[in-house]
Amino acid sequence: MKMGNSSFVAIALLMSVVVLCNGGKTSSYVRKLIQNPVDMPLDSDAFAIPPGYNAPQQVHITQGDHVGQAMIISWVTVDEPGSNEVIYWSNSSLQNFTAEGEVFTYTYYNYTSGFIHHTNITNLEFNTTYFYVVGIGNTTRQFWFTTPPEVGIDVPYTFGIIGDLGQTFDSNTTLTHYQNSNGSTLLYVGDLSYADDYPYHDNVRWDTWGRFTERSAAYQPWIWTAGNHEIDFDLQIGETQSFKPFSNRYHTPYESSQRTSTLQYKWLTTELPKIDRTETSWLIVLMHAPWYNSYYSHYMEGEPMRVVFESLFIKYKVDVVFAGHVHAYERSERVSNDKYNITNGICTPVKDISAPVYITNGDGGNQEGLSINMTQPQPSYSAYREASFGHGTLEIKNRTHAFYSWNRNQDGYAVEADKLWLFNRYWNPLDDSTTNIP
């Protein structure tokens, strides 16, 4: 799916190969407090309910088409459905437009959701600020967003990357630091509210998470990838539908790919050949479980998927893959292991400048805490790893270069702890390694 302009494309997938030999850098930084983070209390200001009868809350937006001329506006009302309409206008026009959407509700064990609204507004102009209003009567709320630039292979654009955020005090720090960055769209690599860590998957924690993230997600698109904490399948309490809270609350523009019901592999093998790199220079993949992971947490969980998908990423020259799941940070060199199979016995990742860089950003700050146990010595493919909370940013400069940085929370302020220039695999397929790989 093109995210706004055709200088890049991001593909989201739902769901760790290591051989022990000396690798890159393991950060010497040690977080002061290793114990698990603490969830913010329900009466925290971060979860404040907006005043007024039936006031819209949990407002969030995501891109509504392939090229950035549509936006899905979502919100929740509690007392009654209220209005399905979004009123919107551009900063260069006094003319108001109206779009009407749909309302959804769901039940989960002993919880009944509020009225969840989704409205896709279309035919937007590129690089334009729009104001929008949701609500009815005396209880309306106004927000704004800016659409991406017009299509062009050298158009600059900046993403943020966050995963496994949760709703702890550390989560609050991560989100605050991201808001102080120059990111225009957030790539979210799965595991949102962590409501399933509470008894009976307490869906009240979906509501608090929606109010917590509204301060960013109502003003810029968050591009969603689901993780294992969104599955919410629990036979013990009679919940047999997977992804029920997530799929009701967080809509995505999957229909714009014109592939609405195929299996993931079939969808991807159809989607990747559509990408014309002469007009779409950057190819970014989002997934949840990393394929290359040198932490003991979730070790090798991504291997079945890697065996099936990795050759596609190399064939179609994926530039970078962002994942979460492991609650720490790690960046790989460009390596592949796509020739491995159970008969040849060769299972060592090798340097491959046609392969993506794999980056794990599962360090948002959730209540389960950091993954601190690493394999030793550091694998050769692992360029940098650190057990800290933080967020990433990816600044696409033009068709050939992008600048990536990872920003450690540092228990109070953001520190650029890891950074590199990425060279585009189609337009500039040079070696951008930061460590030597045998």
From TrEMBL:
Residue stretches making up the Purple acid phosphatase C-terminal domain: 355-412
SUPFAM superfamilies recorded: Metallo-dependent phosphatases (SSF56300), Purple acid phosphatase, N-terminal domain (SSF49363)
A Pfam family it matches: Metallophos_C
UniProt domain Calcineurin-like phosphoesterase: residue ranges: 158-329
Reactions catalysed: a phosphate monoester + H2O = an alcohol + phosphate
EC number, as in UniProt: 3.1.3.2
MF annotations from Gene Ontology: acid phosphatase activity; metal ion binding
Organism domain of life: Eukaryota
Keyword presence, Zinc: yes
Ranges for domain Purple acid phosphatase N-terminal: 56-147
Family as reported in the entry's similarity comment: Belongs to the metallophosphoesterase superfamily. Purple acid phosphatase family.
Name by which UniProt lists this protein: Purple acid phosphatase
